[in-house]
Design goal:
This protein is of the alpha/beta class. It folds into two domains: 2-347, NADH-ubiquinone oxidoreductase 51kDa subunit (Rossmann fold, 3-Layer(aba) Sandwich), CATH 3.40.50; 376-463, no CATH class. Helices cover 40% and strands 17% of the residues. It has helices spanning 2-11, 30-33, 136-145, 158-162, 184-207, 221-230, 250-258, 278-288, 320-326, 384-388, 395-404, 407-412, 423-427, 434-502, 508-541; strands at 38-39, 45-49, 51-53, 56-57, 59-60, 67-68, 73-76, 85-86, 91-100, 108-116, 170-175, 211-217, 237-241, 273-277, 296-302, 310-315, 334-339, 346-347, 361-366. Strand 12 (211-217), helix 6 and strand 13 (237-241) form a beta-alpha-beta unit. It starts with a helix and ends with a helix. The protein binds iron/sulfur cluster (2 copies).
Length: 542
Amino acid sequence: MRLVENIIGAMRGKAGTPIPGGIKPPDYKQATLRSRLMPTPIPRELILPLIQHGSTRTKPLVKPGDKVLKYQTIACSEATGIVDLHAPTSGVIRAIENFAIPSPLNKESMCILLESDGFDAEIDHNAITDYCSLSYLELAKLIEEGAIFGLGGEGYLNRLKLSSGKAVKLLIINAAENEPYITADEALLREKAKLVVLGAKILQAACMAEHCVIAIDSNNTDAIEALEQTQLNCPIELIKVAPKYPTGSEKQLIQTITSKEVPSGKYPADIGILMHNVGTAYAAYQAVVEGKPCISRITTLAGPALQTPKNFETLIGTSVDYLLELCGLNQQDHTMTLMGGSLMGVKLARTDVPILKTTSCIIAASNAEFPPPALEQACIRCGFCADACPVSLLPQQLYLYAKCQYYSELISHGLNDCIECGACAYVCPSNIPLVQYYRASKEEIGNQLKNEMSSAQWKQRFQYHQYRAKKDKEASRESKKRGAVAKTDEAVQSAGSTVQNMLPTFSRESAKKEIAAAVDRVRKRKTRLIASSSDENTESSK
Ligand code: SF4
Ligand code: SF4
């Protein structure tokens, strides 16, 4: 613990240790920071995917035609690690069916379609003014009921983070937002710094972290000022980090702040550290103090094809189209829409898709700022990509393995540690879309693993079937054998008794008697014969 204290003490108020590699792309943040953070008007329809995280679906508690109130639970979790789904406004459930969801591949998924009634009528909720009186377990439960995801865009489940069961030495609230277009966290801090700090305290109490810091880019001056005013007499420290992309990524920020590396394949909790986004801290405040589950988030609407780019506090389920219209989308300039930022985001296949709890940014791109990708050239082994990699990987080597589909080499060269930040592709003079190769390889490896797992399961089932068949055969052979032996014994026994019955009863005494009787019969017969012959002789002499 002393190490963490020393590090924090040494860095208090100063820029942290820069990450290896990284890039400094031009900044387009000012366009969205000009206006105040504002709530979006309630759209007529909200599309709420039943799958909120991973691949497990929540179970609907409503049916088409049902009336619901704002904050009402409309789908519940049935599995560990899934949170409930709440109605973002009052209205009528119109359908529960497949709708398009945000994806580069035009995917659909089962969603609840809620038609707003415009009244925004709420259910009663329990506001807790004195959260300090609650135990850490009660706080964690309230946060769980708040259905909060990691709102930084990564979508980690707070409950899982909070209940990892590992001692937490340091809680980091991440406000280091280095994507060139995203300003959602900065806007939130600028306007709700006090509530974010309260949320940070709640998270700290819920995970019993010994220390808590808020890490922020040193050039976010408005947000820093707001935090410094708020944090008077507060034990939470403010740490300013160098504004280099991608310092805000989880492992990179931990390295920057503590000089500790989270080992490959491990989680920050394994080294006693937890990290939450500022949006998550604000949502924790709402869930615990106001008793309101997460039904909205701050999303940056940016890009050159928008006349008035800004940050919105938008309801989950609002259509991207609706938000683009609110910002004055210039259809002629608009060439594509990115979700999640210009470097880490994905190109949306369509824009009639809902805002999710993980949607930090939508960019309406134009050809001027986002020209079509230049022709991919051969790798010239310049090494620029390796210099830019914040994870100290060898991107050119990974690229060659990915091209040749050498998956085991990709894994042994750290593909799983690649955070898909795009820094390597950004500096590549040969215009190689390196991240696309890595993503495709990760997907392929994932599919292969899935297939292997399912074929392993089939193999296991087959082997078990064979084992059962063998056991049954042995058992039947055994029972047959036992049956045969029993029969033989029986047969032998019955045969024995038959033979015994058939055999004459020989004994020495009886034999003697038999012989004596026979001798007596012979003697008597002889006597009779002699007597009869003497009678005949007498007769003839007469
Ligand atoms: S930056 Fe591009 S060209 Fe240079 S080594 Fe990396 S992949 Fe090859
Ligand atoms: S995308 Fe991956 S390989 Fe490229 S710089 Fe980022 S972490 Fe390194």
